[in-house]
Amino acid sequence: MKRFLLPIALVAVAAMSYSCAKTESTPAQEGQTLTFRIIREGTPADDASKALISETDDGRYVVFESGDKAGVIQLSGETATGTYGNITPDGTEATTNIYVSSSSSLAAETVLYFYYPYASKQTAYKAVPLNIPTYQSANSAGYDADAMPMAAPSLTLEEELTASTDETVTYYNLGSLIKFKVYSTNEDYLAESVKSVKFTAADGIAGDFTYDLSTVDGSTFTTPTLSETEIETSLDEVVSLSEASSKDNAAVLFMVVGVGSHSGTFTVTTDQAVYTYELSSAKTFQRSKCKNVSFDLANGTRTAQTLEKYKTVTELPYTNDLSSNNGYFVVEDQTNDDNITIWSFDASYGAKATAYVDGTRYATESYLVSPIFDVEANYIQLTFEHAGRYFSTPLSTYAKLLVRTVDGDTYGEWKELTIDNYFGNSSWTYVTATIDLSDYAGSAFQLAFDYSSTTSAAGTWEIKNFSMTEYTPSPEIVSVDPTEISYSADEVAGTEKTITVTTKNATSVSATVSDEDNFSVSVSDLADGVATVTVTNLNAAAESTVEATISITATDGTTTTNATTVAVSQAGSSVTYVTYTKITSTNDLTSGAKYLIVYEDGPLAFDGSLSADAKSNYKSVTISNSSISVAESDDTFYFTITASGTNYTVKAKSGSCIGNTSDANALNYGSSYTNTISFNDDGTVNIVNGGGSYLRYNATSGQTRFRYYKSSTYTGQKAIQLYKVSE
């Protein structure tokens, strides 16, 4: 990563080169690697140092560190290819090795566009994504200047390039720099140590933006439009103010901000207090210039506080690419007798742990501890990407994920979580791990990445794109009971049986049956995750066994489960059945056929075995799909309807015809009564005797019967239907 340091003269080397290994031995990439000379802004070409951040008092500017990468976009014709350049400083020399996509050469007229920092391969050279971070950091080695976005004028190849070039690429800063000097003329505050400085502005000073690299010419620059209004620069280790009694001895921090005129509030945080300073007027921050801002703690608005060891996250989603130590993750060495630096942070690789330093492997164990998560969520999921090499096995011994509960100042014991997807240990290929943390929902908790090594094996673990989110779990059918339903031959049609369905995370259950002619299903509402599926057999008169499948699914309104199936069967009957089917038109009447006179809402059939008017003159029947099945031995209550001119005789099974010769409430049996028959649009039938009275069903309690009712009052009785024997 870049750091702000004192000027160092660097000389570019023009030679063919290959990418450096990240740790130990890594095979070189295939393809052509070109070396370009890079100079800093405002410096003659023979002084090959890096992009200048002007500062009148000590001339600080940016230098690169090993492992830094410059973004490169290679444009050949209309085809843009994203790549990068490895930056390798070495004392007074530095090479910038640009890895290009061609394996042999670059065609003439190919245009190369350059930007910094590199995070991923980009192709949109007219809108390359860049960023001024809202969280910036520093440690004892210097200030992390990856926060400074940079761009260079494009380079057009005048002829085909088959070897390295000695071209010059000049990077220009797109942001401005603030140099903070923190001191105290109040001796009481000199015992404190600086932790961070925050700038809360009235307008945008940081965040994501895109930049048109084709416009970079070194003289005119577009000012990025930024949306974030707050930046914090934090120190990995607090800096004592014990000697900072004046501006000359002040503690120094830097901050990259967006170009423009900004007003707002500065906040200095120490280990004992917070100090605020209001800008009396807007200040102008120029591109590639450094503005000095000094803070005397004696003049700030002071609020005493105790510095918290861990930050707390109270809302999800929470994401952290781990490209820098932004104060949310804390390194806690468990074993580090040689006092090496185990964890570091990189824009490309995220948080990186290794105990392989300068060719030596050290025995260590170190935690990278997360913030405290105290969120309102029922279901929590963690994902992160990680890669690693050179570990002993099993990997779960040397690269672990831990969790502990937190209750105020009380911390539970660390417990190991299962990482579901480990890296291959033979390449730098990143894999994504997904861990369900719902068991810790409702309580505060912390995570820790636990790295360990030995003197014989010190692997490198890279972790990036840490993401914790609340999720909605998919619906699930936990169980169905029973898983098979069977009907015996002697179970009548209409017999109901039930299936209990137990679910999780569902809002409703549905069911279908593969044979709707012989079975029906209905489903109750869910209650405490349980629904009841009711199964009904429709055709107990089946001559042979019928089988079907009931498919049951659960849904949350968005996602539906795969179907769970239940087998259902109806045994064939040894009994012979007579089937009657509903008719609704005189065209369906067949003279001399057998009929059932039915009140469907009963369902009841007029008992044709009788020969006199009586209460309760009916038989109970079962209606299924507009059909009634009657065992042949029980088929004794039908009527025979025979055409007689334009009228019909309705003869009971007992041998007498029914009718009446007067318009009265009565039911007579005899040998020669005739009726007219007609049908209504709703499927009911009108059987009217010679006297004009209508055959109806009386549902009045104590008077239930089939009977003729006079034409002036028959509508007060129940309409009837006619079923004809099936041939």
What is the share of helical residues? under 10%
Report the biggest beta sheet as strand number plus sense, adding barrel if it closes: 9 strands, mixed
How many domains? The number is 4
The value of Rg in angstroms is 44 Å
Tell me what portion of residues adopts beta-strand conformation.
over 45%
- The strand count comes to 63
Model description:
With 727 residues, the protein is an all-beta fold. It has 4 domains: 3-304, no CATH class; 312-470, Jelly Rolls; 476-570, Immunoglobulins (Immunoglobulin-like); 577-725, Trefoil (Trefoil (Acidic Fibroblast Growth Factor, subunit A)), CATH 2.80.10. The strands form 15 sheets. It has a 9-stranded mixed beta sheet, with no helix packed on it. Strands 49, 50, 51, 52, 53, 54, 55, 56 and 63 form a 9-stranded antiparallel beta sheet that branches. A hairpin with a 2-residue loop joins strand 10 (135-139) and strand 11 (142-144). The longest helix has 4 residues, at 395-398. The model is unreliable at 1-61 and 90-95 (pLDDT under 50).
Descriptive terms for the model:
single chain, 727 residues, Jelly Rolls, Immunoglobulin-like, nine-stranded mixed β-sheet, nine-stranded antiparallel β-sheet, 1 helix, elongated, disordered N terminus
